[in-house]
Amino acid sequence: MFDPDDDQTNQSSPITLVLTFSVPYPTLQGAADCSFWIRKLRAEAALYELTEGRRMSVARVSRLLSNALYQNRALGLSVGTMIMGFDDEEGAPPKIFYVDNSGMRIEGDLFAVGSGSTFALGILDTEEKRYEMSADDAVALGIKAIRHATFRDAYSGGFINVFLITKNGWERVFTQDLASTIELRHHETTTELT
What we know:
Elements lengths: L14 E6 L2 E5 L3 H22 L5 H14 L8 E6 L9 E6 L4 E4 L8 H10 L8 H18 L6 E8 L2 E9 H16 L1
Antiparallel strand pairs: 1-2, 3-4, 4-5, 6-7
Helix pairs in contact: 3-4
């Protein structure tokens, strides 16, 4: 869960902030900008749930963020995010929206956000049956795409966080600090040479 006072949040690496039970919010730009907006959205979602007796829809959450960012677009904010999850209606399909600091909001079925997104999309687009995968295969593909983007893009963060989102909520299924992995490999290689 996101802790706004945690010093880890000022890194440029991806951070996932949890808006509600059903809407994790991966952020891939300015952590400070994103953490402010997530607190605002959490408050709005809590108020909505109290007054309406049900959770706010994923589309509504993305629209609130989009409107707020559009109204503040001249401030030079750095926000690029995907908002995804399931709505409460029975049989509702998963929803995913891309929202950025200009207020642009796009609904789609596949997004990658951040400076390494083109590399990640290159991996995702090569998988022809990506919509028919098991959860384990989808997680493996996500890890491969993020790892590829991280190693090919100098500005990408060094962390891989993969979350599985279902109608019952979300769970973190994989996390890795690639910098530690690289240091370990370098140390093992150096040790073998001596």
